[in-house]
């Protein structure tokens, strides 16, 4: 075994992109799970999950997507949102066709339709496309809630890995609020960081699964599969497929962004208004990971709330902040104008700061 295996999150589309190694940043910051009873609907007799039933419920709602642009192409997956033909997928699946190219969608019954792009959001790696002349038999997938998820919960991933449409794999939720940092290009070919406090799962996710569904055993959408961990070059391995660590965008973020894209074709994002870096602070004799505030933007939400350079943010609305990426992920999951309560350590003393989030100037 290598001395150190560096994990790099890779976008799980038909093309696996080379991304920056993040070392401990990628694997840090999972929030301690709350004690929550699992949904009895997720289980059948003898507390066993009936995956056959789950697969039959959700498979008709998951589609395969093929994108052509010039001499290049890509494949991915998508999830049917409504009977009007709106489908959610990842931005990186369809981004090549934003300015030119074609998008085709194949349903679970092998019928293929053309599709247009309703809107994309590079900073959350989400997009909505719409079928042209959608059939009346479309089956939207019911949406769950990220707030009820717990570590260890059984889940199923459904998608089009390696062009193998309708593939289902099962596993568990391995961690919640896992900060994952990738990069993506918007319609102007500008490279943007994508930071998500993701659902980590052991369900096998491979290239082509991007945009597909992560569902609970009761058949509700809980996340959109978006990226996988790959062994970095320092490990001496060229493995680029599933290694048991995949990531999905939580459904609450999906609801927020797709709702905006369907309404206006674009999405706005909440902003705290600080520059932060990974740091540690001492509280009650213990060292604790945090996001250290380096600077506060003038007139920003953070400035109005009284945040100061040197503050250590350790908590957002009761959820642990273990890195600067973790802080970014929590803020991006909120809405513009939403109030959040930050737990801040200043001068060795803990205090609560309520911030009304502002709007980011651009994606």
Structure description:
- The chain is mainly beta.
- The protein has helices at 24-27, 51-58, 91-94, 251-264, 301-305, 324-332, and strands at residues 7-11, 62-69, 72-80, 86-89, 102-106, 112-121, 126-131, 154-159, 167-185, 191-201, 213-216, 221-231, 246-250, 270-271, 274-283, 286-296, 312-316, 319-320, 339-346, 349-356, 358-359.
- The strands form four sheets. A six-stranded antiparallel barrel has the order 8-9-10-13-12-11. Strands 2-3-4-7-6-5 form a six-stranded antiparallel beta barrel.
Summary of the model, kept short:
The protein has 363 residues and is mainly beta. The longest helix has 14 residues, at 251-264. Helix content is 12%, strand content 42%.
Fraction in beta strands: 35-45%
Order of helices and strands: EHHEEEHEEEEEEEEEHEEEHEEHEEE
Shape: globular
The separation of the N and C termini measures 41 Å
Number of helices: 6
Q: Report the mean per-residue pLDDT as an integer.
A: 85
Q: The biggest beta sheet, please?
A: 6 strands, antiparallel, barrel
Low-confidence stretches: 1-8, 14-37, 234-239
> Into which percent range does the helicity of residues fall?
10-25%
**Strand order in the largest sheet:** 8-9-10-13-12-11
| Strands, total number | 21
Gyration radius, to the nearest Å?
20 Å
By helix and strand content, what is the structural category? mainly beta
Chain-wise SSE layout:
Blueprint: E1 7-11, H1 24-27, H2 51-58, E2 62-69, E3 72-80, E4 86-89, H3 91-94, E5 102-106, E6 112-121, E7 126-131, E8 154-159, E9 167-185, E10 191-201, E11 213-216, E12 221-231, E13 246-250, H4 251-264, E14 270-271, E15 274-283, E16 286-296, H5 301-305, E17 312-316, E18 319-320, H6 324-332, E19 339-346, E20 349-356, E21 358-359
Antiparallel strand pairs: 1-12, 2-3, 2-5, 3-4, 4-7, 5-6, 6-7, 8-9, 8-11, 9-10, 10-13, 11-12, 12-13, 14-21, 15-16, 16-17, 17-18, 17-19, 19-20
